[in-house]
Amino acid sequence: MPTITRDVVVVGAGPSGLTAATEMKKAGLTVAVLEARDRVGGRTWTGHIDGAMLEIGGQWVSPDQTALYETLETLGLETYPRYREGDSVYIAPSGERTVYSGDSFPVSEATQAEMDRLVAILDELAAAIGAEEPWAHPRARELDTVSFARWLADQSDDEEARNNIGLFVAGGMLTKPAHAFSALQAVMMAASAGSFSNLVDEDFILDRRVVGGMQQVSLRLAEQLGDDVHLNAPVRMVRWNEDGVTVEADGGIEVQAKRVVLAVPPNLYSRMSFDPPLPRRQHQMHMHQSLGLVIKVHAVYETPFWREEGLSGTGFSAASLVQEVYDNTNHGDTRGTLVAFVTDEKADAMFELSEEERKSRILESIARFLGPAATNPVVYYESDWGSEEWTRGAYASSFDLGGLHRYGRDQRTPVGPIHFSCSDIAGAGYQHVDGAIRMGRRTAAAIVQAAQPA
C-alpha cells in the first residue's frame, strides 16, 4: 500500500477522534483516521445479540451535555427518556428490601441527614475546584493524597451514609473501589457533571438515550469522512520530530502528516512505539492512569414485568452484588430490558466463577430487587470491556492516589506534533461521549489555529 500523505492523522475512530477529524476537515485540513477495531465507535457500541439490540458501551445523555446534544442535532439523531415511572427499590446493608418513591433512599433520618451533609460538602468542593483544572486549587494536594474512602470516613462515622455516597462515584462512575482513588478525583468527577448533586441524581445523569443507539454518532461521522477512515489498522509506530510524523499501522498502512492526534485512552498509548520515545513526564504520567472494571449486564424479557407491579426498574444497594439496576428498554420495543452493574472487586469475584455460575449469581441479585421473574431472561449478555483488546477497562481512566494533582496539568499538553484527545482527559463531560466530543473539538481547534499562516 502506498504511503498516505495528510495534514493530520488521527489514531482512534471513537467519538473524540471522529469529531476532531470532522472539525479539521471542515477547516480545510486533510485527515486520515486509523482504527484498530473492525468498527468505529470506540467505547460506544450498539450490538445485536440473539435478536436484541443492546447498548454494549456508553449510552446515556444528561441535560448538561450540550456538546453531545449539538452533535446529535447536526447528525439528525433523536433521543428518548429513560423509563422511570413507578417506585424504586433499595436493599439495605442488612439485606432488607424496601420499595420507595421520591429521590431519597429509605434510610433512617440520621443516615439521610448524613448523606445530605456529605453531598453539600462535596457540592461546595466541586463548585470551588471545578473540572477543568482541579490540580490548580490550593487544596489539590491535600485532597489528592487521601483516598475517597478515607476522606468519607474522616467526615462521618455513618457507614451506610458513606457507602451510599461512595456508590455513585466508585461503582457508578470510576468503577474502582473508593480506597483506590483520591478525594480530589471524586470531586473532579462531580464537577464534570456540574455538581455532586447531579452525580447522585439518576434522573439527571441517566436522563435520555439515543433512538437507535449511541454508536450512531460515530457511524454517521465516519460515513461523512468516507475513505479517510481505515479500520483493522492498529497503530504500531509513531516516528516524529518537529517537522511532522510518520505513523505505521497493520496492513502495511503508513501515513505521513504534520501532526497526529492520539484519540485513545491513556492506557493504550503504550501499545504504540514512539521514535524518539515520549518524554519522561509522559511515561511517568501514563503509568499513574488506569481504567476500572465493570460488568454491564443486559437482561431482556418478553415483557417489562416490573412495570405491572408498579416498579420503575430502578434499584440501588451498596451492599449487594448488583449495586444498580435500571429499566433499559429500547425505544418502541414491546419487550423489557434491564441493565445492571457489577463493579470493581465484586466483578473480580464474578470472573473467578464459571460463565453459568456467574450468570446465576447476577440474575439472583437482580431478582432481589425486582422479583423471581428476573431470573428468566430470554436474552442475557455481559459487556466485559476489561477483556476487550483495544479498551481493557471501563469506563475511562483515572489517576491513582496523588496522580491527579501531580500530573493532571500535562495530560492535555501536546508533545511536539503529538496531540491527545479522549473523554479520559476531558474536564466537563469527563468519562462521557460529551467529553469525548468536547476534547475532539478542542484538539481540532488548536491544530487548525496552529496551521494558520503567521
Automatic annotation (TrEMBL):
Keyword Oxidoreductase: yes
Cofactor: FAD
Domain of life: Bacteria
InterPro entries hit by this protein: Amino_oxidase (IPR002937), FAD/NAD-bd_sf (IPR036188), Flavin_amine_oxidase (IPR001613), Flavin_MAO (IPR050703)
Sorted UniProt keywords: Oxidoreductase
Entries under Pfam families matching the protein: Amino_oxidase
Residue ranges of domain Amine oxidase in the record: 16-447
PANTHER family linked to this entry: AMINE OXIDASE, AMINE OXIDASE [FLAVIN-CONTAINING] B
Family: Belongs to the flavin monoamine oxidase family.
Protein name as catalogued: Flavin monoamine oxidase family protein
